[in-house]
Amino acid sequence: MTNMIGLVLADDHRVFAEGLGVMLDAQDDLAVLGVAHDSHQAIELAARHEPTVLLLDAHMPGPDLDTTLRAVRTSSPASSHPTSGSLRNPTYQTSAISPRFCASC
């Protein structure tokens, strides 16, 4: 038996997010707990499910990446490896990296 990894996806490109969610959920050791399409939904789903991993698009409607990550850190302390996609901007890279939040985990 494998340990399940709980995952919340957050991307405002709905077809991409939903398709990726279906593909990841088909894996034996992954459980997609929710799919968000803006930062507000990402914060809400992270608080509700406390996922192991939050795959977060850095450019979505709602609060910016820094604000979203701070809210997730507060509302979902059990989430140990939220990750941030689209990190081409060094400002976002610096914001996302911490002992509990890693841009490349």
Short description:
With 105 residues, the chain is an alpha/beta fold. It has four helices and four strands, in the order E-H-E-H-E-H-E-H. The chain starts with a strand and ends in a 9-residue tail after the last helix.
If you had to describe this structure to a student in words, what would you say it looks like?
The chain has helices spanning 14-25, 39-49, 65-75, 90-96; strands at 5-10, 30-36, 53-57, 83-85. The chain is flat. Helix 2 (39-49) packs parallel to helix 3. It has 4 helices and 4 strands, in the order βαβαβαβα. The longest helix has 12 residues, at 14-25. Strands 2-1-3-4 form a 4-stranded parallel sheet, sandwiched between helices.
Topology of this protein?
Blueprint: E1 5-10, H1 14-25, E2 30-36, H2 39-49, E3 53-57, H3 65-75, E4 83-85, H4 90-96
Parallel strand pairs: 1-2, 1-3, 3-4
Helix pairs in contact: 2-3
Give a quick set of tags describing it:
four-stranded parallel sheet, 4 helices, 105 residues, alpha/beta, single chain, 4 strands, 39% helix, 20% strand, Rossmann fold, disordered C terminus
